[in-house]
Amino acid sequence: MIMGGFAALKTKDLINVGIYSALYFICMGLAEGLTTLVTGLLLPGFTSIFVPGIVGLLAGPVYMLMCRKVPRFGALTIMGVLMGLFFLISGHFALAFIPYVLCGLLADLVETGLNRGSVHIPWRVLSYLVFTFGSLGPVLPLWFMKNAYVASLVKRGKSRDYINALFSHVTAPTLIACLAITVVGALVGAWIGQRLVSKHFSEGAAKG
Fold it and tell me: I need a surface site. Which of 87, 133, 158, 204 has the fewest CB within 10 A?
């Protein structure tokens, strides 16, 4: 299956990838909006820590449905590239797109290489967990590339007060918390997505 690469994707598959990528993008937007609202009221300064986990929580059904609809190598890679390009053109840190590209490819390898596009839930959940880590692209530089990140914020006209507030909670414990929240969010999102997709297809088969 992998040997066929992107050539195995037909026009209909590419259309489906585009549709599900758009839905995934909407989930990302909702996750960022909801997290900003809630943390702004309850935990100011912690938005970046929670966003990846909330993305994983909301986008599970979209991911599971796409894996069911397009069980071919290349689909998840394309989705990862599209999500990475969104980060690139929406003003995030310049290297923020790289994790989604890499995680999309790795998730593709797990889904179509190890899982072989079947309904083996553990492999599909693992592929989703890997893919969700791509959403860490905009936040990892806070911990690992602080100087470059600060320079990019200054270039974008951000004030020193804004920058200080952004980095006030960037510590080793919050990095661990961010990773843990991402894992939990992705696992719960995968569970919800798998249940919804299974119910949808089982009902469809019963009606058929």
Answer: 204
